Amino acid sequence: MSAAPVALVSGAASPLGAAVARTLGERGWRVLPVPPDARDTGALDAALDAALDAACASAGGRLDALLLAGEALPAAGFGATSAADFRALWEAEVERIVLGTRAGMRALAARSTGGAILGLMASGGPGPAVAAAAGALDQFCRIAAVEAGGFAVPVRVNLVRPAQGRAAAATALAAAAAFLAGPGSRMVTGVTLEVGERA
Length: 199
Description:
199 residues; alpha/beta; Rossmann fold; 5 helices
C-alpha cells in the first residue's frame, strides 16, 4: 500500500485554510500546516521556505502539494475602500499566494519531485478592488504554470477562487482544491477554477 500523499497548507488557521486541511485529511492526505502566517510579507516568505524544508524532511522528502489560502477581509463599496483597505486586500490575497508559489516552485524544482501548487483566493465579493486582485491572480497562475511546467519534473500551478459576485462556501472551495491537488487532475495546470452559486 502506497504512503499517504503529503500536503503543506499555508493559512490553515483561516476559515478557508481550515476547511482545506480538514477536507484533505478526510480524503487520506497527511496534512502539515504552516505555522501562523506573519503579516509582513518578507517574514511570510522566509516562514514558507522554512516550512517547506521542514515538511519535506518530516515526510521523508515527500511533498505532493502546497496549498496557499488567502484571507477574506470585510468588504466595502469601492468608493468607501481606502488605499489602506486595498493594500490589506492585496497582501492578504495576492501577495500570500504569489510569494507562496515562488517558495514552492523553488523547493519543488530543487527536489525534482513534481507536485502541485494551488492558490486559494478567499474573497469573492463584487467590486473593482476584489476584481483587480482576482484578475492579477488569474494571470499570475497562467504564467507561473508555464515556468513550472518547464522544470525537469514538471510542477502544476492552479488557482481556486469564488466566482465574481457569487457566494462560495469554504467547504465548496476546499472540495475543488482537493480535486486540483490530487492525481485526478494531473494533466491540469494554469487553470483558474471558479466556484460559487448565484446569490
